[in-house]
Amino acid sequence: MGFVILVALVLWQVKRRLAPNLRRATWVNAFGVGLAALLAFATARQSLYWSDELSLNFHAHEIAPQNVSATTSLAAAAAARGMVPAAVSLYQQALASHPDFWRANVNLAYLYYQQGNFREAARYLERSSAADATDGDQFLYLGLARMQLNQLPEAEAAIRTALLVRPNGHGYHLGLGLVLKQAGKFIEAKQEFEAALARDPQDAQARALLAEVDGQLKSQAAKRTANPPLPRPR
C-alpha cells in the first residue's frame, strides 16, 4: 500500500508539472493507466494462488520443493481433500530429508490411524514423541494404537504419559480406561471412567463403559461368593 501511494504521488507531481503541455500530460495519463492495468493483472494472477489451501500450498511447494514445512503443509491440504495416497507420499518426501520433523511425523501418524494402519501409526507417533515430548495428544493416540495391537502395557504407559504432559487433556481418562478394561483391570478402569464423567457428565460413552465395568466387577464378586477359596491345609 505504501509503495502504491508513493507511485501515485510521483505521477501526480509529474502530471502537475506537465499540465501546461497537454500532449505530455496525455502521455503521463496513458502511462498511469498502463501501469494500473499491469499491476491489476499481476494482482489477479497472484490472488489465484490464494483461492484455497491446496492451491496456495501447491504454489509454495512448487517454489521451494526442498522446504520441509511447505511440503508438510501441502500434504495436510491434500489429506483434507481426501487425497490420501498423495498426502502419504508428500509426508514421506518431507521425512526423507528431515526424519525428525515433528509435524510431518505426527500428521502422517494420524493419517495412518484414521486408515486403521495402527502399526505404522504407532511407529510414527514414537518418532514424533521423541522429537517433541510436549504434545499430549500424540501419546494418547500412541496408546490407542498400541491397544489396537494388543500391546497393553505399552499402551497404558503411553496414555499415562499423556496425562502427565497434559492432565486436563480431553478424552485421556476415557482412553486409559479403555486400555485398563481390555487388560482386565476393572477397578482401575472404573476409576478412569469416573474421572472422565467428572470432567464431562454428558459423556455417553464413558457412562456406558462405566456401567459395563460395574457389571464385570459384580460378576467377579458373584463368582467369588459362589466358589469360596478352600482353606489351607494345616
Task: Describe the secondary-structure layout.
Layout: H1 2-18, H2 22-47, H3 53-63, H4 68-80, H5 84-97, H6 102-114, H7 118-131, H8 136-148, H9 152-165, H10 172-182, H11 186-199, H12 204-226
Note the total helix count. Answer: 12
Cα distance, first to last residue? 97 Å
Q: Which runs of at least 5 residues are low in confidence (pLDDT < 50)? A: none
Look at the helices and sheets and give the structural class. Answer: mainly alpha
* Biggest sheet details: none
Q: What is the approximate shape?
A: elongated
Determine the strand fraction and express it as a percent band: under 5%
Q: Got a strand count?
A: 0
Name the helicity range: over 70%
Spell the H/E element sequence: HHHHHHHHHHHH
The overall pLDDT, averaged over residues, is: 85
Report Rg: 31 Å
